């Protein structure tokens, strides 16, 4: 059995945060960060591609307040990024390139990591589906949900539908899937989301400020053509070089994992050639 295969599915808990690793431990590291109310299992399809095409290793955490990781007393993009940085620094070989791919909340955390504020040098960063503009009403609604007790549902199916709808995964995830089994917890007529609703208290990221502070060699901001939470027109207005994925919704990595590989491949090639002009992927 090869080294790459032997590492697949090993787990390690770093600083209390659940972390899963795979691939070649001696090569470059790819960090995969999931969105709000999800967990690292959303990357399984992408990981199958990495097993065939990626020369390095990968690190997949359940962000604090999600999945198998403990909850925090309060949440911010900085606190989440700090825990991810600690996990990467403790598990990745010193000096190897670190690349970060994040979705939605995970995309905002990826950009926060790429500032270098938490001691981690990020070579390339790709943020998918990070909402670029928030109305006052949207901010109020999210704050209300974050501050309220967790909703309790009478059945697993109701709880699953709630999580998938709030996370905008309902169009691409089968409610009867193993992934959904990991998103809710309960018994009988008492079911709720595994994720802490208070994670939504992170609020709207300062996307413009994060972009200005980013120290990565290469960066890509990406939106699905049909993403209702991150409308591509709004993202392009903020960042004209943003990439739009034709036919994709909010969760392209779940809709079709093949959407993700060209994003990574382009960034890695750009970083390898140190192209100063290639700041993002071409708009498509």
The CATH homologous superfamily of the largest domain is termed Alpha/Beta hydrolase fold, catalytic domain
Assigned CATH class of the largest domain: Alpha Beta
Under CATH, the topology of the largest domain is which?
Answer: Rossmann fold
Q: Give Rg in angstroms.
A: 18 Å
**Counting H and I runs of at least 4 residues, what is the number of helices?**
11
Number of strands: 10
Number of domains: 2
Characterize the largest beta sheet: strand count, sense, and whether it forms a barrel. 8 strands, mixed
- Please tell me the overall pLDDT: 89
Level of helix content? 25-40%
Question: How much of the residues is beta strand, in percent?
Answer: 15-25%
Terminal Cα span:
40 Å
Shape, principal axes of CA atoms: globular
Spell out the helices and strands N to C. HEEEHEHEHEHHHEEHEHEHH
The stretches of 5 or more residues where confidence is low (pLDDT under 50) are 1-10, 274-284
> How are the strands of the largest sheet arranged?
1-2-4-3-5-6-9-10
For this entry, what is the oligomeric state of its chains? single chain
CATH architecture descriptor of the largest domain: 3-Layer(aba) Sandwich
Q: What does this protein look like?
A:
It contains eleven helices and ten strands. The protein is an alpha/beta fold. The protein folds into two domains: 203 residues, Alpha/Beta hydrolase fold, catalytic domain (Rossmann fold), CATH 3.40.50.1820; 45 residues, no CATH class. The longest helix has 15 residues. It is globular and about 55 Å long. The termini are far apart. The N terminus and C terminus are likely disordered.
